[in-house]
Specification:
heterodimer, A: 114 residues, mainly beta, 7-stranded mixed β-sheet, 4-stranded antiparallel β-sheet, 11 strands, globular, B: 113 residues, 6-stranded mixed β-sheet, 5-stranded antiparallel β-sheet
Chain lengths: 114, 113
């Protein structure tokens, strides 16, 4: 595709439910990143993939958060037993390789946990 | 603790005014990027600065990287309503082997006609 796409664009869920967020990176981009953006908090790094492996998971806030990437392309971020503090915009970005290259961001998924 | 501190957090000005946004850190960065984000969209890269003391211009926007590569500034001349948005600085920490970008919290700029 022409750019990074994310789905759903908006998600409202009840506390305690699981949610899955999807990211389709730019074709050919081997590096993929997940960030969380809360109001007034800037972008918080969650996890980085190089191909299908995740050499840096240090930003995942708890074991309720997990992510996987298959086929070196699509990635899914899963949040189990959602809490109200998980409400935020979840942004995905991809870059051609890694190492500080330009990251191209998707439009984000707005998650609201009631 | 925020690795990159941006100031001001909010800026509301009239069309035609000039402004400067600052991005500061106690850490050295191998490169620093500026992004602009509009509501409902992801951040879009404006510029990357790599060399200490480097100055880059993008129309009415001037970006500067500090000599010590610890800070950067964005100056907008004769701001227009179309400049409204969230401006984010992001840096690759020197010594990072994974190219992780650290983001500042952003400056929300509003330019009134």
């Amino acid at each position: 595709g022409a750019g990074v796409s994310q789905s759903p664009s908006n998600k409202v869920t009840e506390k305690g439910k699981d949610v899955e967020l999807r990211c389709d990176p730019i074709s050919g981009h081997t590096a993929l990143y997940w960030y969380r953006q809360s109001l007034g908090q800037g972008l918080e790094f969650l996890i980085y993939f190089q191909g299908n492996s995740a050499p840096d998971k240090s930003g995942l806030p708890s074991d309720r958060f997990s992510a996987e990437r298959t086929g070196g392309s699509v990635s899914t971020l899963t949040i189990q037993r959602t809490q109200q503090e998980d409400s935020a915009v979840y942004l995905c970005a991809s870059s051609f390789r890694m190492r500080g290259e330009t990251q191209y961001f998707g439009p984000g998924t707005r998650l609201l946990v009631l | 603790t925020q690795l990159l501190e941006q100031s001001p957090q909010f800026l509301s000005i009239q069309e035609g005014e000039n402004l400067t946004v600052y991005c500061n850190s106690s850490s050295v960065f191998s490169s620093l990027q500026w992004y602009r984000q509009e509501p409902g969209e992801g951040p879009v890269l404006l510029v990357t600065v790599v060399t200490g003391g480097e100055v880059k211009k993008l129309k009415r926007l001037t970006f500067q990287f500090g000599d010590a590569r610890k800070d950067s500034s964005l100056h907008i001349t004769a701001a227009q309503p179309g400049d409204t948005g969230l401006y984010l600085c992001a840096g690759v920490n020197r010594g990072s082997t994974l190219g992780r970008l650290y983001f500042g919290r952003g400056t929300q700029l509003t330019v009134w006609p």
